[in-house]
Design the sequence.
């Protein structure tokens, strides 16, 4: 999955059309000034090294007279990439749940709860999802 920036090509097209951004030739510098951003930040956006916040995308689209979705081309993930994303999410979720469960058990032990009471509390909190996997 990728976002391919189209900012530079839109700027170039606008220059050819004689379009102006607040009276200035459309380039990264004039766009940055109009957005209240640094030129380096706009350069990162145009190279795809960073993604602007949503409000900056909408403001940029307004300044360049394009729809927000025209600033970036979305390339959907391949099936292999999607499966890798799902696996990564599941691994992180499992690790997080196990970490939270261990932390909660320690907290409850410090409070002096019995092991049976701890297990009931852990189950009530939904932290037993990965017990079979341990």
Sequence:
């Amino acid at each position: 999955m990728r976002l391919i920036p189209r900012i530079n090509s839109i700027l170039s097209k606008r220059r050819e059309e004689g379009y102006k951004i607040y009276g200035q030739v459309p380039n990264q510098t004039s766009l940055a000034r109009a957005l209240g951003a640094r030129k380096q930040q706009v350069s990162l956006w145009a190279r795809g090294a960073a993604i602007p916040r949503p409000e900056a995308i909408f403001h940029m689209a307004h300044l360049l007279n394009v729809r927000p979705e025209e600033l970036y081309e979305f390339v959907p993930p391949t099936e292999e990439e999607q499966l890798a994303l799902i696996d990564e999410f599941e691994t992180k979720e499992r690790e997080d749940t196990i970490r939270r469960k261990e932390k909660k058990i320690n907290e409850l032990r410090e409070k002096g709860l019995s092991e049976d009471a701890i297990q009931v509390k852990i189950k009530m909190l939904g932290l037993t999802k990965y017990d079979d996997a341990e």
Remarks:
- The chain has two domains: 2-75, 79-133.
- The chain is about 60% helix and 5% strand.
- The helical segments are 7-16, 28-35, 39-47, 54-64, 79-110, 115-124.
